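Below is a complete specimen:
___
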Amino acid sequence: MRRSELVRSLARVPSPPRPRASLEQVVTPPDRAADLLESATTLGGLAGQSVLDLGSGTGRLSIGAALLGAAPVRGVEVDEELVGLATTAAREAGVRVEFLASDVRDFRGSADLVLMNPPFGAQRRGADRPFWDVAMGAARVGVCAFALSESRTFIARRAVARSAHVVATRPVPWELPRTFAHHSRARVPLGVDLWTIRTGPEP
């Protein structure tokens, strides 16, 4: 699938209708979602790989992974309304994804690859930590994820503690649109990194 086609498909996945600041329900822009999905090529690609999307929201990353041949694909999302929207979006995209209504801290299982745009911890300090802990433990091959640039030391230390190898870390353009009631500006640029981490042995 060409990138332009992938981005168009991802853009059709709806945004949360009532985003909750307490859960940092920030939409992954379609272009950035495509960046993350493409970063999996350094871990062997998505085709034929099992995928786990932590904090899957309305399913943008999960659906994109399935469109690129990943199977099986599961998303874990605590907000049941978003699980329903994601399930509908996957069906409309013609892909099979299982969405689970659950707190990531309660998830037990594994996958070849973990993809995620977790909370950045901007509203509640440490909100991102359970996601990274579960991701590092669940990924048999690797993790592709977004994080605030200021989290670099924390994530690097988590990787070392799990004997994982950071394949790449690069900043990506990211503008946060007005999403929550306390936002006063139409758009705010954020310092966001895209991480690619190998948790399993080199092929």
Remarks:
- Residues 80-93 form the longest helix (14 residues).
- Residues 3-10+27-198 form a domain with the Rossmann fold fold (CATH 3.40.50.150).
